[in-house]
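User: Teach me something about this protein's shape.
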Amino acid sequence: MNLQIEKEFKNLLTKEEYEQLLLDFQLEESEAIHQTNTYYDTKNKLLQSLNMGLRVRVYESYGEQTLKVPIQENEQLEVTDSLTLDEANQLINEGKIKFESHIASKLLEENVPVESLEPVGQLSTVRHSFPGEGGVYFLDKSYYQDQKDYELEFETDDLEKGLLLFEKFLEKHHIKKRKTTQKIERALQYPNS
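Assistant: First, the predicted structure itself:
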């Protein structure tokens, strides 16, 4: 199990802004990380009502399940259980999460009936990362249902300083500041048809 306090800022990008950042930071498609998230909730959207997010993420050679629990704006507790690639794919195929896990225990503490969880959406991302002053940037191109979007994330250790650095970065690269929701929220706006 991995416990982490995630402090991050996000901004949706236009395709042109995304492509310009790829050029500016010399990011190669061949170096990108490919990941697919399958999101879970109960039929009555209990996790959504608690502002929590649960996913099983599949990378090229392994998987993980992660629960995000809000602490305050731009800050959340991330609980992650490692999975083998076979475990992750089996959970997704069966529409379940791993019951013998730290995440299942945490959900039970929050009175979430683990057996009632089911897949509610899926999103795939091509992700580039690069270091920046005060943290790490992630440049994402995401696909879900028939949608595609582009996003810049900035993870930092200091929310106050991080916000200033992120805003300075956006201004320097002539990127308009846009209200940006979590990936799970965007994926669930467009239910499977």
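Now, about its shape. The mean pLDDT is 94. DSSP finds six helices and eight strands in the chain. If you'd like, I can walk through any region in more detail.
User: That's plenty for now, thanks!
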